[in-house]
Write a structure and sequence with these properties.
Elements (H helix, E strand, L loop, with lengths): L4 H27 L6 H20 L4 H20 L3 E3 L4 E3 L1 H19 L2 H27 L1
Antiparallel strand pairs: 1-2
Length: 144
């Protein structure tokens, strides 16, 4: 199966947008010394976009797209679980925010794959705002 020129350009645009938005989220995580960095988030967003694009490119029924998205949610949840660590000495759980951001990044990729570009961009901005605004507030509250 080959894609025509216009479809190929649109797919490339989607994949580049996914990588770009994933990199932005990964950069924020790296700057706050997150456990997961830029490459991981770019790959999560790219993979999610590709998984959602595939059924559309193959012209399969919408139920297949729903199944792809459902499996994507489960798969990313499993991947995110690997980022969560319980530190016995401090009694704290680490990596929950990273796992949640991995999950949201996959949803952003899915939105791109469906063609909801503004939703993906706004969601990326919200992830950044939540992390950049709420993190300092949480740190102040932790010191009290």
């Amino acid at each position: 199966m080959t894609l025509n020129y216009t479809t190929t350009i649109l797919v490339i645009k989607d994949l580049l947008l996914a990588v770009g938005l994933g990199l932005v989220i990964g950069l924020e995580r790296k700057l706050v010394q997150g456990e997961v960095g830029m490459r991981t988030f770019a790959l999560i967003c790219l993979g999610a976009t590709l998984f959602v694009l595939l059924p559309n490119l193959m012209a399969v029924p919408n139920t297949a797209l729903e199944q792809f998205i459902g499996q994507l949610v489960v798969g990313i949840g499993f991947l995110g679980a690997g980022a969560i660590i319980f530190e016995e000495r401090s009694g704290k759980l680490r990596g929950l925010t990273t796992a949640a951001i991995m999950w949201v990044t996959a949803a952003i990729g899915a939105a791109i794959g469906i063609g909801f570009y503004s939703v993906a961009i706004i969601s990326t901005a919200l992830v950044l705002l939540i992390n950049l605004i709420i993190l300092p507030i949480e740190r102040r509250l932790d010191r009290k």
